[in-house]
Amino acid sequence: MKKLVFFSLIAILSLTACSKGPQYANRAEAIAAQMHDPHSKYVVVTVHRGDWRNFPENSIPAIESIIRMGADIMELDLKMTADSVLVLSHDRDVKRCTNFSKFFKDSPGKSALISDLTLAEIKQLCLKRAHNVEIDTLRMPTLREALECCKDRICVNVDQGYEYYDAVLAITEELGVTDQILIKGKKPIEVVAAHEAAYEHNMMYMPIVDIQKPKGIALFNSYMDQGVVPLAYEVCWQSNDDGAFDEACRRILEQGSKIWVNTIWASLCGGYGNDDDAAFVANDPGSVYQQYLDHGVSMIQTDRPELLIGWLKKKGRHTL
Q1: CA-CA distance, 304 to 264, in Å (whole number)?
Q2: Nearest CA to 97 among 127, 125, 142?
Q3: Residue range 201-227: mean pLDDT, rounded
Q4: Span 272-312, pLDDT tens digits
Q5: Is the CATH code 3.40.50.2300 the one for domain 24-79+143-314?
């Protein structure tokens, strides 16, 4: 009798495990699976340059903070040093985000361009918080350091960086994180296809389309006309007056792709009142974000991750 109960218990546990759905090796793999599933109701939350309100943007602590919040993707920007090392920086120079002027005050004429500085020089500079507060313990991370922090914990979106595709891929392959990386750009389909054909294994790719500007419209239509279905489209638009966003969402969903929207700035999402700050000021996330869910948006880039994640969880749209 005991043996029968024992085997019955195993059967129950097995059925319970199966009912939970696919099992993933780590959180980043589970997030990537949601990104690849056009039917998933899970809303992927991407955080713009990490938790830059509390830590220097694109820094390791900024990454660690959004991982603790439960974010899905760390959006970062890349630049290459004079000695060919990829580092995390949105700007071409280090003036805004470091103490460059103070550190090199005795070197008039010293270039602040990252492309003119070696990694050793950059690592001597202290990073600043958003409010120009110098943090003497933090330095600009390399891409390798950032990916080592993110590995298996959170996916990564390389925003500014498609021009370094080969170098980025070499690092992601070495670290075993290629499947966790999404890189995006505005290149023609043929350019991206030729680039990816050079490798057996590639990062995820997403086109950026501004549906109210000629180049963006042309790029969007080229995907539709050629029947190429990307993982997702990053859709940008400046006004809701002409229905361009509505129509783009309809076509994307019919195609079987996903929609990514940036709510970080009003100029990227239809104008004032449609962005993160409007949601924060109103203390009513639904007044801003619900319209995107209604349009079928399932990937949102934000500067207010805690606000958005908390709201999505209450709606049952952010549980892996």
Answers
A1: 8
A2: 127
A3: 98
A4: 999 999 999 999 999 999 999 999 999 999 999 999 999 99
A5: no
User: Alpha helix locations (H) across the chain?
Assistant: 2-19, 27-36, 60-69, 100-103, 119-122, 143-150, 165-175, 189-197, 214-226, 244-255, 276-282, 286-294, 305-314
Neighbour-count burial of 113, counting CB atoms closer than 10 A to its CB (0-12 exposed, 13-18 middle, 19+ buried): middle
Q: Are 159 and 75 in contact (CB under 8 A)?
A: yes
Listing DSSP states for 82-99 in one string gives TTS-EEE-SSSBSTTTB-
d(CA 47, CA 29): 18
Q: Where are the domains of the chain?
A: 24-79+143-314
| Token pair 């974000």: residue | 289
| 239-243, 251-255, 308-312: least confidently modelled range | 239-243
| 177 contact partners, CB below 8 Å, separation of at least 6 | 28, 147, 150, 151, 152, 156
Main-chain dihedrals φ then ψ at residue 82, nearest 5 degrees: -65, -25
- Give the tokens for residue 262: 């940036």
Report the SS3 class of residue 166: helix
Pick from 21, 25, 27: nearest CA to 40: 21
First vs last C-alpha separation in the chain: 39
What are the tens digits of pLDDT across the range 43-68? 999 999 999 999 999 999 999 999 99
Length of the chain: 320
Residue type, 117: L
Quote the crossing angle between the two packed helices 189-197 and 214-226, to the nearest 10°.
60
CA dist 309 to 254, 285, 313, Å? 27, 10, 6
CA atoms within 13 A on the CB side of 179: 14
Residue 3 has pLDDT above 70, yes or no: no
- Which has the closest alpha carbon to 312: 278, 295, 288? 288
Tokens of 95: 């003036």
Beta bridge partners of 48: 75
